[in-house]
Specification:
- This protein is α+β, with helices and mostly antiparallel strands.
- The chain folds into three domains: about 90 residues, Gyrase A, domain 2; about 45 residues, no CATH class; about 50 residues, no CATH class.
- The chain has eight helices and six strands, in the order αββααββαβαβααα.
- The chain has a four-stranded antiparallel beta sheet with strand order 1-2-4-3.
- About 15% of the residues are buried.
């Protein structure tokens, strides 16, 4: 992209001189394959400044872009777009260094900063569903991107509450004999609700539940 943009800047300057020195070629990936690999739309903006038709500006710049090893074809279209078709050889040349580079040509940030990312983790008291996983994946992806760019990252995850409510559940399982059975996390949910009712109604049970947590 930078190579193409620089070539266009030079061509614009050659075609229109100092009047177009500050013109940004505005090279963007083409919206559709039939429009090429990239498109440039600077001609429409420059037309107002130069008092020329956008399509004439586009054709004038195309005439200065004599780089057959890079451009398979260049064509003015619509109100002044330039459709850019690149040669396969040039594309292969640009891709080859990326194939041999584990960083894909992406440089590390020169001014790296320590970043704290607080994101979801498994709640030890609940079954995970796709919503939990989505949040975890997004958080982990953000961390990995920042680390790849060279930023030291502190991962902060809240593991979920595991205080008094676990004491309530443990004491309830022991008192009811349910501890001797195998339970899934889903099984524990109604048992937890019953333990909470008992905790609120029975001070003795509440004290035992608290003791289970700190024992």
């Amino acid at each position: 992209m930078k190579i193409i943009s620089n070539l266009f800047k030079t061509a614009i300057r050659e075609a229109f001189g100092e009047a177009a020195d500050d013109c940004d070629p505005s090279i963007q990936p083409a919206a559709r394959a039939e429009y090429g690999d990239y498109q440039a739309n600077f001609a429409m903006r420059l037309a107002k400044k130069l008092q020329k038709k956008p399509v004439d500006i586009a054709n004038a710049v195309i005439a200065k872009l004599n780089h057959p090893a890079i451009f398979k074809s260049l064509e003015a279209s619509g109100p002044g777009f330039i459709n850019i078709f690149l040669t396969n050889e040039f594309l292969a040349q640009q891709l080859q260094p990326l194939v041999n580079n584990s960083r894909l040509g992406i440089e590390k940030e020169a001014n790296a900063e320590t970043v704290v990312v607080d994101y979801a983790n498994a709640n030890v008291a609940k079954e995970m569903h796709v919503g939990h996983i989505r949040s975890i994946v997004i958080g982990d992806a953000i961390v990995r991107i920042l680390e790849f760019l060279g930023h030291p990252v502190i991962r902060q995850s809240h593991l979920g509450d595991w205080g008094t409510q676990f004491g309530m559940l443990i004491e309830y399982l022991i008192e009811t004999g349910a501890e001797k059975q195998r339970h899934t996390v889903s099984d524990l949910d109604p048992l937890y609700k019953k333990s909470k009712e008992r905790f609120d109604a029975d001070p003795v049970f509440a004290d035992k539940a608290r003791a289970r947590v700190v024992a």
